Amino acid sequence: MSHQRATAPSPSAAQSPGSTPTLAIEAEHLHKTYPAGRRKPPVVALDDLTVRVRSGEIYALLGPNGAGKSTTVRILSTLSRPRSGSAQVAGHDVVREPEAVRRSIGLVSQKPSAAPLMTARESLVMAARIHGMNRARAEARATELLERFGLGDAADRLTRTLSGGMNRRLDIAIALVNGPGVLFLDEPTTGLDPEARVQLWAEIARLASADRITVLLTTHYLDEADHLADRVAIIDRGRLVAEGTPDELKSELNGDRVVFELLEPSAGPAASQCLAGAPGLTEISVDGRLVRARTDHGAAVITSALDLLETAGIEVGSATLSRPSLDDVYLRHAGRAFEEVA
Q1: Into how many domains does the chain fold?
Q2: Alpha-carbon distance 163 to 160, whole Å?
Q3: Beta strand pairing status for 231-236 and 239-244?
Q4: SS3 for 49?
Q5: CA-based nearest residue to 47, from 33, 27, 62, 36
Q6: Which of 93-97, 252-256, 274-278 is most confident?
Q7: Angle at 191 between CA 188 and CA 197, to 5 degrees
Q8: pTM given for the model
Q9: pLDDT of 107-121, one tens digit each?
Q10: Is residue 183 part of a domain?
C-alpha cells in the first residue's frame, strides 16, 4: 500500500475556490541556540527558520542529523522555547498558550513512549487517563486504537516483547489517544526493517487522507520524504534551503544526473576540465573521486564522455545515469550531497 498524493484530499478541500488554505502550523523566523560546552562555541540549531503547514497535509522536514529538525518539533510541541521568533499550532501560540497546543497535538518522539514493563493496552489506557478520560472511556479508546493499528492480538503483551514496527505503531496510537488535529512524527521509521517502514508509511498516509490529520514528520530518508510528503522543506544547518512538492523540487533541475567515479581521487580537477569539452554535459562539479554533471542527452553522452576521459588517461571505475532526485535538490541548494552528511 502506498500513499498517492494525487488521490489524497486537498489541504484546501474545505475552502472556497480562490481562498487561502487554512494553516495548521505557522512558524516565523525561529532562532534557537544551545549554550556552549567546555571549550566549544554555542550551537546554532535554528537560524531564521520559517515554515507554514496547511491543514490536512503531510509536510516533511528533510535534513541530515543535526540540521535542526528535532529542535523545530520540540519548539512546535512546546517542549522547548525559541530564542526569538513565533509559532502557532492549531491556532494557538506555542509560548503563550502551551496547554492549548498540547491538547491539540500528538507527538511521537524518537524515543519509545510506552513503558517496557507495561502492556500495550495498559500504555494506551494510561495515556487516555492522563488526557482526562474516565476508566470506561479510556479502556474503550485503547481497544479502538489497538484494533486500528493491528495490535489487538498483542494487546496484553509487555511492550518490551513487541517488534520494532509494532512498538512504533503503538507509539502513534498513544499519540492519537486525545484525537489531535496535528501529529508530529520525529524520525518515525528510524531503525525499522523495510517491511515495517512500508507498513508505517501506509498508516501515516491514511492519517492524512482519511482522518484529515495534519502530519509534520522529520526524516533523513530521502525516499521517505519523496514517497510520503505532500510538501518537503529541506533544512541545512538550521536554515530552510528549499521547499515545495517533491515533484516541484525535482523539476527545477534540468536533465538527468551523471556521476563518474574515478579510480584516482586526485584526478578530479583534470576530469572536470576534460568533461567541459563533452557536448551535452552541464553543471560539472568535483567531490573527491566523484565527478557529477547534468545532461539532457541520456546514456548517449556517457559514451562520448568516457572516450574523452580515456583519451586523457583518466581511469573511471563506474559511470551512472539517473533521474533527478531529492539528493540532487539538496546538493544544489546546500552545496553538498545529502548522502555525505545524513
Answers
A1: 2
A2: 8
A3: antiparallel
A4: strand
A5: 33
A6: 93-97
A7: 60
A8: 0.80
A9: 999 888 888 999 999
A10: yes
